[in-house]
Amino acid sequence: MNVLVINAGSSSLKYQLMNPETGDVTAKGLCERIYIDGRLTHKVGDKKVVKDIPMPTHSEAIAAVLEILQDPEHGVIKSVDEIDAVGHRVLHGGMKFSDSCIIDDACIKAIEECIPLGPLHNPANLMGIRACQAVMPTKPQVAVFDTAFHMTMPPKAYRYAIPTEYYENDDIRRYGFHGTSHKYIARRVASILGKKEFKLVNCHLGNGSSLSAVKDGKCMDTSMGLSPLAGVPMGTRSGDIDACVVQFICNKYGMSVDECLNMLNKKSGMLGISGVSSDFRDLEQGSADGNENCTLALEKFCYEVAKYVGSYAAALNGIDILTFTAGVGENGPDTRQMICDYLAFMGVKLDPEKNKIRGKEMMISAPDSKVQVWVVPTNEELMIAQDTAELVNG
Ligand code: AMP
To answer: Which ligand 1 atom is at minimum distance from the Cα of 270?
Structure first.
C-alpha cells in the first residue's frame, strides 16, 4: 500500500510517499514559496532535484507533487492509481477529535470550527486537504491531529484554574501538541517492553519541545497547552511564563498582546536567552567557546525538562521508562546527560558509552538504573501513514 503523507503550511507543503507496513519512504519533498512563486525540492533515495514551478495556490503545489511522482526521470510511480490514500497532518482537533478521521464534509466542518484554536495552522492544513480533493477527488483522505493523542488526559490535567465559563463557553483548556510523535513513541515502547502496561515519560526535544506522561499507552498529561507556547523553553518559544509578564511588557513598551506573543513565540527560548541561536548545535559550540549566555540557555532547558520529568513521575506514581526523541532528544548526548543528572534521586542512571548514540533506537541507561532510559527516533509521517491505512482499510 502507498500512502501520500501531506503536511501543509501556509506557504509550504511537505510530502512523503510511504508504505505504512514497512515504513519505506519511496519519495519525499517540499513545496515552498506557494502564493509567491513556487519551488519544489524532490528526493528519491540520495537523489535530489529542485524545480521552480509556479504555485499560485496549494492546488498547483499538489499537482506539481503528483507530476514529479510520475515523472519518467525522477518519479517513483506510473500513475496516481498507485497512491492508495492521502494522510494529512492537522494541527488542532480541539475537543472534537480524539482520534484520526476519514475526511468528509462533517470532518472538514469540524476542522473549520477549530480554526479559532489553531488560527495559523488549521486554515493552511485545510488548504492542503482541499487542494488534494480538487486534484484527486476519488482518493480516500484521512486527517491526523496533533492534539488527538492527548484527549485521554483527565480533567485535573487539562483544565486551567480559571473560571469554568471559559472552558464551557470557549473550550479553553490544555490540549497539547506533537501528539502524533508521542503516540508513535508510546507504541514503540509497548513493543520494546513487550507489554501494554507501563508508565512512560516521553521527552520530544527538538526546535519545538514537549513532554508527555503516558500510562498503559494513554496520555495522562502533557506540557504544551492551548497552544504550543506552553511547557519547557524551546528554540524560540519561552515555554511556561507568568501571564503578568505579558501585561508588564505590553504596558511598558506599548506593544499589543499579539506583538508580545510574537516575541514569546519567535524571539524567546534558547534564542532569547543566548542571544545567539535557537539551534542546539550552535549553543553547544557557543558554550564550548566560553559564551556564558549559551551555557545558561542549555542549563535552563535541561533544568526545566528535568522538572517536568520529576512532576510527571509524581503524576504517574513512578515511571518505568524515560524516552528521548526528536532532533535534540535523538542527537544530543550532553543534553540527555544533563537532564538525567537531575533525575539521579529517582534512580535514573545513564551508561555514558551507550549515551553517545545518535539517531538510533537504543537503551542508554546503566544496568542498575531503576528506570530504563531509551533513545527512540520519532517518525510522525509513519504514524500518519499507519493511521491512514488503518482507517481506509477499515
Ligand atoms: P527538530 O525540531 O526535531 O528537527 O530538532 C531540531 C533541533 O535538533 C535543533 O536545535 C538542532 O540543533 C538539534 N540537533 C539536530 N542534530 C543535532 C546534533 N547532532 N547534536 C545536537 N543537536 C542536534
So the answer is: 10
14 touches 3 (CB < 8 A): no
Cα-Cα-Cα-Cα dihedral of 130, 135, 140, 141, to 10°? -30
Task: Please tell me which residue in 37, 146, 334, 351 is annotated as part of the active site.
Answer: 146
Eight-state DSSP code of residue 245: H
Predicted confidence pLDDT, tens digits, the chain (394 residues):
999 999 999 899 999 999 999 999 999 999 999 999 999 999 999 999 999 999 999 999 999 999 999 999 999 999 999 999 999 999 999 999 999 999 999 999 999 999 999 998 999 999 999 999 999 999 999 999 999 999 999 999 999 999 999 999 999 999 999 999 999 999 999 999 999 999 999 999 999 999 999 999 999 999 999 999 999 999 999 999 999 999 999 999 999 999 999 999 999 999 999 999 999 999 999 999 999 999 999 999 999 999 999 999 999 999 999 999 999 999 999 999 999 999 999 999 999 999 999 999 999 999 999 999 999 999 999 999 999 999 999 8
DSSP reduced 3-state for 6: strand
Domains of the chain: 3-145 (3.30.420.40), 194-375 (3.30.420.40)
> pTM, whole model, 2 decimals?
0.96
Nearest ligand 1 atom, CA 235: 10
